[in-house]
Amino acid sequence: MADIMSVLFFHVMKYKVNDQRDCNSDRFVLSKGHAAPILYACWVENGGYPEQKLMELRKIDNTFEGHPTPRLDFVDVATGSLGQGLSNACGMAYTGKYFDKASYRVFCLIGDGESAEGSIWEACAFASEYKLDNLVLILDANRLGQSQPTALGHQMDTYQKRFDAFGWNAIVVDGHNVEDLCKVFHEASVTTGKPTAILAKTFKGKGCPDVENLENWHGKALGAKAEGAIDAISKLIKNNKHSLTPPVPVDDAPAVNISEVKLFEAPSYSLGDMVATRVAYGTALVKIGKDNKHVVAIDGDMKNSTYSIKFRDAFPDRFIECFIAEQNLVGVAMGAACRNRTVAFASTFACFLSRAYDQIRMGAVSQSNVNFMGSHVGISIGEDGPSQMALEDLSMFRAIPGCTVFYPSDAVAMERAVELAANTPGMCFIRASRPTTPVVYGNTEEFKIGKAKVRRQSDKDQVTIVAAGVTLPEAEKAAVTLAAEGINVCVVDPFTVKPIDKATLLTCAKASGNKVLTVEDHYPEGGLGEAVSAALSEEGVKVRRLAVQNIPYSGPPTVLLERFGISASCIVKAVKGF
C-alpha cells in the first residue's frame, strides 16, 4: 500500500494539511481500517502531526488508534468494520456532485478481503446508477486475508469483469509501480459519466525479506524480522529529505449553514384529526426543507409508505433514492452528513434498519449527525405480518451511544420531533406508526427532548400508565373506562424514550402509589418498559410492563392489539390487577 498512498497523498489528492475538515478538500476513506498506521504515516509525512505521535500508536489517549475514527480531523467516518467505507464515500461523492456541485473528489481504499461483503456491491450499484465520476475506488488486492488467502487471490481479470459489470471504469495496475499509478489516477480524473475502480495488484510486505507475500502476518508486528525489513527498505530510499506537498484544492464548495433549522410553517391540525405519524413525517420534512436548502432526504424504495415521497415531490434535486439496499442507504446518509454539508434524513421500514445495524453502530463511532425515521413499527401494521413488524427497533437505537430516540404519538409531536432532530447533535431515531392516530396536541404545543407530556392526572391516581404511539390512545381509552369505575390513573406520553424524562415519571409515580404500568407495541426487551424501569429502579417504584411477548402473525390491527395484550381492555385488566 505504501506506493498507492504515496501517490495519493503527495501527487493526486488536493487537500489542506492545516485545515483537515476543509469543505473544498478531497476526501479519503480508508475502508480497510486495519491499515490505519499507513494513513497516520501520511499525515506525519505531510507535516500534519509530529513523528512522536506514531511512536505512541494504539496507546491510551493517543488519537492514532487501532482503526481510524473522527477523533482525528482528517477522518470523516470510522472504519474497520469492513465493507462500509465505500457507501460512506458514495454519500460524500453524491453530495459533492449534486448538492455542493464542487470540484472536490472522493477516494476510497478497500481491501480485497472486504470485497466479499455485499454492502460493497450495493455501493457499486449506487455509484454507477448516479454516475459518480468524482469517486475513485482503489482495491488493494494483496491476495491475503486474515487467516488464509482470499477467495480470488490475484485473479485480477475476475475483479475487472465484476467492476465492469457494475458499470465502473475498471483498470488493473501494478500497485507497486509509481509511474503506472500516476497514469491510472490521471485516467480516473478525466473519466466522465462513471466511477473509476483502480484494481491494484499488490504483495503484502513488499520488499521485506521473509515477509513478502507470506501468510500469517495480518495485524502483527515484524518482531525479529523488523531489522531486515528496515534495512531492505532503507536501501530503496534515494532522497530522505523531500519537498513534496499535496496539491491545493479549488475553493468552490458553497458556504453551508445548517443551524437553527425550523418548520417553515407550524403544524396545522385539528384536535381529533386521524393522521398517521408517518404521514406527518413527510409533511415535516417538506417544511424544514423549505426553511433550509441543505436538508436532504434518503429512502430505500419505501418513499410512498414512509411519505418521504412528499419531500421528493417538493425537492427532487435533494432526494436520494437508494433502492432496496439498506446497508448502503445508511452508509450514504452518513456520508452525506459528513463535514456538516447537509442535514440528512434517511427513512425506511424500521424493521429493515436491523439489516444495517452494524452501519448504524459505526455511525455512532463516526460521531455522525445522521437522522433515521423507521416506520411501520409493531403489530399495529396488521395484515402484512411479522416480517414487516419492527419490534426490536427501540432496543437497537437505545443501545447506540449518544442517539436520541423519539417516539411521537401524534402528528403535531411528529412534526416537532423532525424539527428537533434536525438540530440535535449526534444520531437521532424517530419511530413512526402505520395506522392513523388521533391528534391530541394543539398546534402550538411545545416539545423538548427528554421532557414527557402528562396527558391525564388527578389527585387520586392509583397507577401511572406510560404509553406512546398507538398505545397512547389505548391508554387514554382505558383511563376513561377505569374512571367510570372509580379508578383514577395518570397517563404519561414520554415523547423521547432516550433520554427518558425521569423527573416527570418519578413525580407521577410518587403521586400514584409508586405504581407504574408501561404499554408498548414492541418486544419487552430494550423498549419503553425497560427504559422506564431503568429510570425508576432505585426509587422504590414498582413497574409492570405490557408488551408483545411472542412472535406475532397477520391480522387486523385491533385484533392483534387485543391478542397480544396491549389494547385498552388489556390495560384496564392490568391496572385492576396491579
Structure description:
35% of the residues lie in helices and 16% in strands. α4 (85-99) crosses α12 and α17 packs across α21. The strands form four sheets. A seven-stranded mixed β-sheet has the order 8-7-9-10-12-11-17, with helices on both faces. It has a five-stranded parallel β-sheet with strand order 1-2-3-5-4, sandwiched between helices. The protein has helices spanning 2-12, 36-45, 51-55, 85-99, 118-129, 156-165, 178-190, 226-234, 277-291, 303-306, 309-314, 326-337, 350-353, 357-365, 393-398, 411-422, 471-484, 502-510, 528-536, 557-563, 568-576; strands spanning 27-30, 106-111, 135-141, 169-174, 196-201, 274-276, 295-299, 319-321, 343-349, 371-375, 404-406, 428-431, 436-438, 453-456, 461-467, 488-493, 496-498, 515-519, 542-546. With 578 residues, it is an alpha/beta fold. The radius of gyration is 27 Å and the shape is elongated.
